[in-house]
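step 4 of 6: structure.
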Amino acid sequence: MSSIIDGKQLAETIKEEIAAEVKILKEQGHKIPHLAAVLVGANPASQVYVRNKVRSCEQVGFESTLIRKDDSITEEELLEIIHELNTDEDVDGFIVQLPLPNHINEENITLAIDPKKDVDGFHPMNFGRMAQGLPSYLPATPFGIMQMLDRYNIETEGKTCVVIGRSNIVGTPISILLSRKAKPGNATVILCHSRTKNLQEYTLKADIIVAAIGRANFVTADMVKEGAVIIDVGINRVDDATRKRGYRLAGDVDYAGVEAKSSMITPVPGGVGPMTVTSLLMNTLKACKGEVYS
Ligand code: NAD
């Protein structure tokens, strides 16, 4: 029987800590952290994510600005907004919610964001600094996972970690962070992906599995070593006629099957997801305090 890594609870604890710090900043007459978010179009998932981010800012006492634009916005117009945010001294950090409409080149947008304000940690400057172990804004989801490992005292040093998925926002950065000479870190990391042959051979060796694939219930009990720690990043919609909305959320791990075999496991929902927003707040606080780029 495994124990749950409760991301929802941990996210609340961290938000309380941030709120306490903001209160002190306020009392001492310092600037309050200010996060801006740019939302283009009406993608339902993006709307939910951005709403959560803005609500979380309010919860911890940050200032927040939401800039909503119709998906008819041109790339030039969006670049102009980014330029304004880059130069707005009151804004400590900002994010441009992805995905963007097809006529906008996401790479151009990411590159236009001032790395000092890139609290999503997607700019190659922050990615490169992360890879070299320099101070940087860590991408939100991997940062959230590192927080979970740290706060739950999950030993990573010398452990075999199998990461499934090599995206720029989850799989690749978490594989770098877990292998860095740091705590948590110092793990032996195996990065698996869609071209990996005999995936199970690797996962069965894993002390820690990070699943970031985007396929519901992909990791099954026969792929997991007894006592492994399971970090399930996946958020997948699965049809469910018993639910009012017609679907339920499922992770990349077959929770019901794997739970009994693992020593610790993140649920979906309530695991990695809530930690992602918390990481954004932590990065914004760092930006305000000039802790990454001084
Ligand atoms: P992605 O589609 O960019 O990448 C998926 C990765 O899975 C790819 O690198 C691919 O090589 C790998 N893959 C696909 N099929 C595979 C197979 N059969 N065997 C091994 N590897 C395979 O996805 P992403 O953006 O990294 O997201 C992954 C999942 O995590 C999605 O469900 C997404 O919704 C979720 N997600 C959650 C959060 C959060 O806050 N919890 C944040 C980001 C993404």
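step 5 of 6: annotate
 - The domain at 28-116 is CATH 3.40.50.10860 (Rossmann fold).
 - The two ends are 47 Å apart (CA to CA).
step 6 of 6: archive
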